[in-house]
Structures are given as structure tokens and as C-alpha cells.
């Protein structure tokens, strides 16, 4: 009998422990954040903007029709970021929910002031995910969040997919998360690059559903330039080509299409679809200076070729590979010269020196970025054209042979 009572008491205790609904939060009590914007005013007060998802507007339930915008944007201000978040309860009926936040957009003014406060907020709070994508903008961050994106319902998610697509297939701009920014700013060179968003086209804004009724859009949001962060402040910008050069040096190119001239006197009217690339950096010490030996391997498929050479001849393939190698080298040189002017090592050369020469790095670390103009770079690029496509000669060459 005593054993039976013990079993009953244990069963009741287990049921009590496993009933985990005491602190539940219903979905209709939450405001789901898709994107966050960071601005700052002249007095140093933070302005946080939130892009909230409207569930009724994005519902796919059959028979439901709504002309409501898919998101709602509002802002709060305070001297601290968490203080601005707290003030959301003054105008919202629901609690802010950050776990579905797709991106953080930082205005140029806020980035030049310093992003250390934002990094601190993400490091200290469990409700903020460090995998969130980070962007800069020369506009106000709020204005960026107000823009709609064609073919997508939720702008924050659409822009997140945009940078994923660019990083995987474009190569000019990297996919950058809060965690990666923290990691690189706390690393040896204290520098990183963050892609920026811009409004392109005619008009001032794409914030109305009426614009979705057209077959084209006069204005759109797109990736613009790469912002250079040193310490925790924005110090300058790289354009798309300079950024791609930096990505080559940092070994962050995945797949891309590389235009190149098939002859020195021609424009870049040929292209290679790069399917595999690898860059390895080896630092060499020469006196008090360092030389970076950059070894890059590239392989791909020829997508376009505008010269009249016969692609069935091995000598022609060698010529094409050399032309592509020269173009890769030129792009890398363009990126490195820009980083030297900005005095910001975002490609990891300092990390390579630290790994190979740890004792010397101790005396170099403090002023490494300021000494980049003394760093020499040697480029060794090897290109392999794996396929030339379905034609051995260019279209114009075949026309000439046929008397066209």
C-alpha cells in the first residue's frame, strides 16, 4: 500500500513539472519585427524604427482579400537603445518580438557616430539574434524600412534574400551578420565592411501599394556600396568593383560572372561564369615590411567570347585564361589600393601576419591599419576554363566565314 502511494505522489509531481504553459504568450499578443532601423539625431538620441508584419495583410487564406500594407513602420527615441525599445509600449498594444528580425539597417550618420552601442545591445540581450543581417544606408534608416519590394510581401525578408543571392552569385558585396561584424571589429585589425542599401530610379519613395499595380517600378531599393567600419565608426566607402576586389582578397567570392576583354584593345564584352575559386595569402617578411603573396585559383565556363579566335586550339584557351587572370588581378589591385587609402584592413592580411609572425605582430597590431601603404602585394592568378560552351567560334566569326 505504501509503495502505491509513493507511485501516485511521483506521478502527480511529474505532471506538475511537465505542465509548461504557465508563462505562455499568444501570437495575437506579439508584434513580429521583420527589420530594425537605427538613426541618431544631432543631440545623440537614438531613433529606433521597427518594421512590423501585419498578419492579416500577408495571409494566404483562400477568399481573403485585403488592400492593407503588409508591414507597419513606427519609431521611438531615447538616449539609450533599450530605452527606445521600452517606449514602444506607449503606442503599441502588443509586445515587440525580435526573434524573427531579418535585418538591421544603420544610417550613415549613426554609423559615423559609432555602432559600438548596437553591438553592445546584441551581445547582452538574449532576445536579439546575432545572425541578423546588417546594412548601412545613406538615407535615413526609417525611410529605408518604409520601402516596399516588388514580387515580395515582407521587405525585410526580401532584402535578406537579396544579399544571400548577391553573396552566392554576384560577389561584389558580402553577406554580413551582427556576429561577423562583432568578430571582425574585435579581431586583430578592428575593421570590417558592411554593404549599403540605396534607392535607385525616379521618384522619392516606394511606400504605397498603388505602385504595385504597375508592371514596372520607377524606384527600387538595391545594394549600393560597401561601407568601411574601423574601430566602430564608418570611415569611408568602396564602390562595387572596389568591393569585389576586396572580396577576392578575402576569399569570399563564391560564384559570379566576370566580364573581361578578349584582347587588350577591346571593351569587356566577353565573360566567364566562375564556378570555383580559392584565394590563399602567404605573408613574407622583408626587413621591416611585409609582402603578401596572394595565390588565386579560378575555374569556370565561358559564357561569352567576342574575338574571332578558334576555340578548338589549345593556344586560344591559354590566351583566354591569361586575359581572365589579368582582369582578376586588376580588380584585386583596385580593391587593395582603395583599402590602403581608407587605412582599413578588411581582407584579413593582419590575421595572416599574426598567425605566421605572432611575436612581430605584438608591435604591429596597434598601428597596422595606418601602415597599410607600406604593405606590398604580389598577385599570382591561375585560371582554368573548364568549358567553352556549345560553340567553338564566335557568332560574328561564323557569319564572316559564311559570307554574312
TrEMBL record:
Q: Which residues cross the membrane?
A: none
Its main subcellular localisation, reduced to a broad class, is membrane
Q: Which Pfam families match?
A: Spore_GerAC, Spore_GerAC_N
Q: Where in the cell is it found?
A: Membrane
Quote the InterPro entries the UniProt record gives: GerAC_N, Spore_GerAC-like, Spore_GerAC-like_C, Spore_GerAC_C_sf
User: Is the keyword Mitochondrion assigned to this protein?
Assistant: no
Q: Which residues does the UniProt record annotate as the domain Spore germination protein N-terminal?
A: 23-188
Spore germination GerAC-like C-terminal domain sequence ranges: 226-389
Alphabetically sorted, this entry's keywords are: Germination, Lipoprotein, Membrane, Palmitate, Signal
Membrane topology per the entry is: Lipid-anchor
Q: Which PANTHER family match?
A: SPORE GERMINATION PROTEIN B3
Q: Which family does it belong to?
A: Belongs to the GerABKC lipoprotein family.
Q: Kindly provide the name given to this protein in its UniProt entry.
A: Ger(X)C family spore germination protein
Q: Which organism is it from?
A: Paenibacillus oenotherae
Amino acid at each position: 500500500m505504501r509503495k502505491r502511494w509513493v507511485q501516485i505522489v511521483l506521478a502527480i509531481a511529474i505532471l506538475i513539472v511537465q505542465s509548461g504553459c504557465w508563462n505562455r504568450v499568444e501570437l495575437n499578443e506579439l508584434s513580429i519585427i521583420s527589420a530594425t532601423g537605427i538613426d541618431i539625431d544631432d543631440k545623440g538620441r537614438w531613433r529606433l524604427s521597427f518594421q512590423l508584419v501585419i498578419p492579416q495583410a500577408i495571409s494566404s487564406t483562400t477568399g481573403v482579400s485585403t488592400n492593407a500594407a503588409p508591414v507597419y513602420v513606427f519609431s521611438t527615441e531615447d538616449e539609450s537603445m533599450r530605452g527606445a525599445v521600452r517606449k514602444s509600449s506607449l503606442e503599441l498594444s502588443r509586445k515587440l518580438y525580435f526573434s524573427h528580425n531579418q535585418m538591421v539597417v544603420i544610417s550613415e550618420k549613426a554609423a559615423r557616430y559609432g555602432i559600438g552601442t548596437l553591438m553592445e545591445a546584441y551581445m547582452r540581450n538574449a532576445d536579439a539574434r546575432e545572425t541578423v543581417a546588417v546594412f548601412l544606408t545613406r538615407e535615413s534608416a526609417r525611410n529605408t524600412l518604409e520601402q516596399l519590394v516588388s514580387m515580395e510581401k515582407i521587405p525585410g525578408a526580401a532584402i535578406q534574400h537579396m544579399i544571400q543571392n548577391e553573396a552566392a552569385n554576384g560577389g561584389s558585396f558580402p553577406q554580413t551578420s551582427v556576429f561577423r561584424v562583432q568578430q571582425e571589429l574585435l579581431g586583430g585589425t578592428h575593421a570590417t565592411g558592411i554593404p549599403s542599401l540605396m534607392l535607385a530610379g525616379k521618384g522619392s519613395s516606394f511606400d504605397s501599394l498603388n505602385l504595385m499595380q504597375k508592371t514596372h517600378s520607377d524606384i527600387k531599393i538595391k545594394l549600393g556600396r560597401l561601407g568601411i567600419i574601423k574601430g566602430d565608426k564608418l570611415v569611408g566607402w568602396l564602390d562595387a568593383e572596389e568591393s569585389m576586389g576586396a572580396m577576392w582578397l578575402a576569399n569570399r567570392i563564391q560564384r559570379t560572372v566576370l566580364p573581361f576583354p578578349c584582347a587588350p584593345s577591346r571593351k569587356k564584352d566577353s565573360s566567364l561564369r566562375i564556378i570555383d575559386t580559392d584565394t590563399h595569402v602567404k605573408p613574407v617578411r622583408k626587413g621591416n615590411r611585409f609582402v603578401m603573396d596572394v595565390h588565386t585559383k579560378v575555374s569556370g565556363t565561358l559564357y561569352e567570347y567576342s574575338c574571332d579566335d578558334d576555340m578548338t586550339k589549345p593556344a586560344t584557351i591559354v590566351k583566354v585564361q591569361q586575359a581572365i587572370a589579368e582582369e582578376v588581378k586588376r580588380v584585386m589591385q583596385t580593391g587593395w589600393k582603395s583599402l590602403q587609402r581608407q587605412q582599413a584592413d578588411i581582407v584579413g592580411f593582419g590575421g595572416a601576419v599574426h598567425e605566421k609572425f605572432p611575436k612581430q605582430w605584438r608591435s604591429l597590431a596597434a598601428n597596422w591599419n595606418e601602415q597599410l601603404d607600406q604593405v606590398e602585394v604580389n598577385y599570382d592568378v591561375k585560371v582554368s576554363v573548364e568549358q567553352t560552351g556549345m560553340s567553338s567560334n564566335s557568332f560574328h566569326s561564323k557569319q564572316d566565314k559564311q559570307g554574312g
